[in-house]
Specification:
The N and C termini lie far apart (51 Å). The protein has helices at 16-27, 69-74, 139-142, 155-170, 176-197, 206-223, 232-238, 243-249, 257-273, 283-289, 295-306, 310-332; strands at 3-7, 32-34, 43-49, 54-60, 64-67, 79-87, 90-94, 97-101, 105-109, 114-118, 123-131. It has 12 helices and 11 strands. Residues 327-340 have low confidence and may be disordered. The chain is an alpha+beta fold.
């Protein structure tokens, strides 16, 4: 997890636009792009994995885009894209609405056809990519906001815009767990801003409020797995719920509250055990960091869940990686010169 940056710096001038088209279609979604600046086209793309959401930046020479129903069928990440236009102006149309956005926010849906074009000069955007199920707002209400120019200089819009810019600036210095936590914050701010555009968030249907509360609880659990005192009662208290109401929220979920906590801890510990940079840390240290107060209990729970012990999982995960690294080093070793 981290910032992935791609630019056309190493691409021949005559191939830069084609490089950009391929990068957008393969990494984001299929779309038809055109430009009048093929001979001097410039572009760069950065992508930041925040767990529940992704944050991308795109800077490019003047360009137009067209995503048809054919493109949607060819590939659809099923995301809502909340874009902040930080430089230039961009015209976007979708679902019968059209806006010219400069310095503001605009929401689009990857599951619907759309068209867009730079109004003048280079355009830079910061795009928050939100999986539709992650947004705790009813889809038919969110559709009203598509292709609308949403202000980013006052109120919740300004707070969201400032947070996204700051996140991009400081992300390279954050640990993966910090980025996941910041992803939850970004989603909360985006949800609050969109709900504000739709009216008083308190007027949202009960089912949407319940879905939002459940998602907040999932993020709370994710961010507090290292606390051995994390219990259903603690979760209920922190979210202003009774224990009975909390269990009711999880009634339709695959796991109960307690089972969800336990499963999340095991999954995080399992991933840590497979990380080469943590191979020097004892199993019990990794278990404790993920909220297991007893090494014996962790080992027993791990074996019940995955069929092997934590040590066996670590060994089976790290040996192939080490072998691959050794083979890579061997392949790069120059052959010895023969005798003359």
């Amino acid at each position: 997890m981290g910032v992935l940056v791609a630019s056309d710096a190493g691409v021949a001038r005559e191939d830069r636009f084609e490089w950009f088209c391929e990068a957008v279609s393969s990494d984001v979604m299929p779309v038809l792009l055109n430009t009048r600046s093929r001979t001097d086209f410039r572009a760069s793309i950065a992508d930041l994995d925040l767990g529940v959401v992704r944050l991308s930046t795109v800077a490019c020479s003047p360009v137009s885009s067209r995503r048809t129903a054919v493109h949607v069928r060819r590939g659809d990440p099923e995301h809502l894209q909340l874009a902040l236009v930080t430089q230039g102006a961009f015209r976007i149309s979708q679902r019968g609405s059209e806006s010219v956005v400069a310095g503001g926010l605009v929401l689009t849906d990857t599951s619907r056809p759309s068209e867009g074009a730079s109004v003048d000069g280079q355009v830079e955007t910061v795009v928050l990519q939100i999986p539709r199920p992650a947004l705790a707002l009813r889809p038919d209400r969110v559709d009203r906001l598509l292709a609308q120019n949403l202000a980013a200089d006052v109120g919740s819009g300004a707070i969201l815009a400032g947070f996204l810019k700051s996140l991009l600036a400081h992300a390279p210095h954050c640990r993966p767990e910090e980025l996941r936590a910041m992803g939850s914050v970004a989603l909360d701010l985006a949800t609050a801003h969109l709900a504000r555009q739709l009216g008083d968030p308190g007027e949202a249907p009960a089912e949407a409020r319940a879905r939002e509360t459940l998602q907040r609880i999932h993020r709370f659990v994710e961010n507090n797995l290292g606390d051995p005192g994390l219990t259903p009662q603690v979760i209920a208290d922190r979210h202003g719920l009774s224990l009975r109401s909390l269990h009711a929220l999880f009634a339709d979920q695959p796991l109960t509250v307690a089972a969800h906590i336990r499963h999340s801890r095991l999954e995080r510990a399992r991933a840590d055990l497979a990380r080469g940079e943590l191979s020097g840390q004892p199993v019990q240290v990794i278990a404790a960091r993920r909220g297991f107060s007893s090494a014996t209990a962790f080992s027993r729970a791990f074996r019940e869940a995955y069929g092997i012990t934590p040590s066996e999982h670590r060994a089976s995960s790290l040996v192939p990686a080490a072998r691959g690294a050794q083979e890579l080093c061997t392949s790069r070793t120059p052959p010895r010169a023969g005798r003359t």
